[in-house]
From TrEMBL:
GO terms for cellular component: extracellular space; synapse. Disulfide bonds join C227-C409. One of its GO terms (biological process) is signal transduction. Transmembrane segments: none annotated. This is Olfactomedin 1a. It comes from the Eukaryota. Residues 1-16 form the signal peptide. Residues 94-142, 178-224 form a coiled coil.
Length: 486
């Protein structure tokens, strides 16, 4: 941009020089340099020289003449009329030239103003172009960085998806198996339709055996599909905002389809009132509820409602109580041997969360810690009727380091914290008695989770998140095992 600016400056300087030259030179070019009339002092005017024009209207006129006492000549003269210049051809030419000069001067001034304005515009454009050039460079650099980040993200996603290929291969085999079941079912349906038209065409005993065999195989297949491995947790869905910072809420996974009651327990200790809402709609939109008074206050937030009864940890004890809502009595109670209580082995958020009761596809569980296992988590399968321990598993994960935990298909999943950024990072399988470290993102929307339980009927996680009742959907991978793997 520097070369065009230099050229404009040269043009302006040249026009100024032309204007100055014309104002100084034009008078001499037309012969209008000042001619002085001189009369020698003390001398006599020479009338014979005839230096003045003869026409009195266009020249000086001698009005009178005399001689003073000292012999000097004294003359009285009349100056020519002022209109003589208007009749002078050279004067007219000069006036016309001066008018042209004035017009040219005005034109040059206008041109100078426009040039200055254009110069300012060009200077502003130069600044804007430099700014645009800088922005284009930044956009180009950002574009390169974005491409690099996108490539890295795609590469990472490919690495995540690569282990799923064997699972998808098994799904192909499972799809073929289901297709065979469908074909057999269609064949049997056709046979039954024909039987309605022609009774006795087939042996009923043979037909019944075929139907029973197909039903058994289908049920076995469904049982295998009922459980899977956790691979993802959805964004939270806020159902309601109520209660204190700590609490629990749940539904009964064994309730009939038309029973959608919600159970609500505010606080983690020294409280014994449980709210019953008729439906999830009433829970979300009204305060219509029935209040149940428990015979003892509960401890922590690890309560569950299962098959019409509530199971909870009695406050300041390691006693598990089963309370029947229909009869409003304690149907069973039992001490959980060696289990720590009264904030001895709580989750990292505290709150007397020593004993956490859970339900999954396999039934009722208790998660706690003992001195014998050095404060690490112990998982016990409980008989829901007698509360006796069916079997226990010891893990190597400290109970106090866990944020929260839940059971899915016999596997205990543990979060790395209860506030801020959270993820599911530890899993212990009771089916294989093995553990692994995983990385499943988990959005902690309200920054403090004091209850997290899985409901196998809804395939969802129920959470109490800092006074908000929240739901998370889960993604499970189902793998059908062949008969040889059973």
């Amino acid at each position: 941009m520097s070369v065009p600016l230099l050229k404009i400056g040269v043009v302006l300087s040249t026009m100024a020089m032309i204007t100055n030259w014309m104002s100084q030179t034009l008078p001499s070019l037309v012969g209008l340099n000042t001619n002085k009339l001189s009369v020698a002092s003390g001398g006599t005017a020479d009338r014979s020289t005839g230096v003045l024009p003869a026409n009195p209207e266009e020249s000086w006129q001698v009005y009178s003449s005399a001689q003073d006492t000292e012999g000097r000549c004294v003359c009285t003269v009349v100056a020519p009329q002022q209109s003589m210049c208007s009749r002078d051809a050279r004067t007219k030419q000069l006036r016309q030239l001066l008018e042209k000069v004035q017009n040219m001067t005005q034109s040059i001034q206008v041109l100078d103003q426009r040039t200055q304005r254009d110069l300012q515009y060009v200077e502003r454009m130069e600044v804007q172009l430099k700014g645009l050039e800088t922005k284009f460079k930044q956009v180009e650099e950002n574009h390169k960085q974005n491409i690099a980040r996108q490539y890295k993200a795609i590469k990472a996603k490919m690495e995540e998806l690569r282990p799923l290929i064997p699972v998808l291969e098994e799904y192909k085999a499972d799809a073929k198996l289901v297709l065979r079941f469908k074909e057999e079912l269609q064949n049997l349906t056709s046979v039954l339709n024909e039987l309605q038209e022609e009774i006795g065409a087939y042996d009923y005993e043979e037909l019944q055996n075929r139907v029973s065999n197909l039903e058994e195989r289908l049920r076995a297949c469904m049982q295998k599909l009922a459980c899977g491995k956790l691979t993802g947790i959805s964004d939270p869905i806020t159902i309601k905002t109520s209660g204190s910072r700590f609490g629990s809420w749940m539904t009964d996974p064994l309730a009939p389809e038309d029973d959608t009651r919600v159970w609500y327990m505010d606080g983690y200790h020294n409280n014994r009132f449980v709210r019953e809402y008729k439906s999830i709609y009433d829970f979300m939109n009204s305060d219509n509820f029935t209040s149940h008074r428990l015979p003892h206050p509960w401890s922590g937030t690890g309560q569950v409602v299962y098959n019409g009864s509530i199971y909870f940890n009695k406050f300041q004890s390691h006693t598990i109580i089963k309370f029947d809502f229909k009869t409003s009595v304690i149907s069973k109670s039992r001490q959980l041997e060696y289990a720590g209580y009264n904030n001895m082995y709580h989750y990292s958020w505290g709150g007397h969360s020593d004993i956490d009761l859970m339900v999954d596809e396999g039934g009722l569980w208790a998660v706690y810690a003992t001195n014998q296992n050095a404060g690490n988590i112990v998982i016990s399968k409980l008989n829901p009727n007698t509360l006796q321990i069916v079997k226990s598993w010891t893990t190597n994960h400290p109970k106090r380091s866990a944020g929260e935990a839940f059971m899915i298909c016999g596997t205990l999943y543990v979060t790395n914290g209860y506030s801020g950024g959270t993820k599911v990072y530890y899993a212990f399988s009771t089916n294989s008695s093995t553990y692994e470290y995983i990385d499943i993102p988990f959005q902690n929307k309200y920054s403090h989770i004091s209850m997290l339980d899985y409901n196998p009927k809804d395939r969802a996680l129920y959470a109490w998140n800092n006074g908000h009742q929240v739901l998370y959907n889960v993604t499970l991978f189902h793998v059908i095992r062949s008969e040889q793997e059973q």
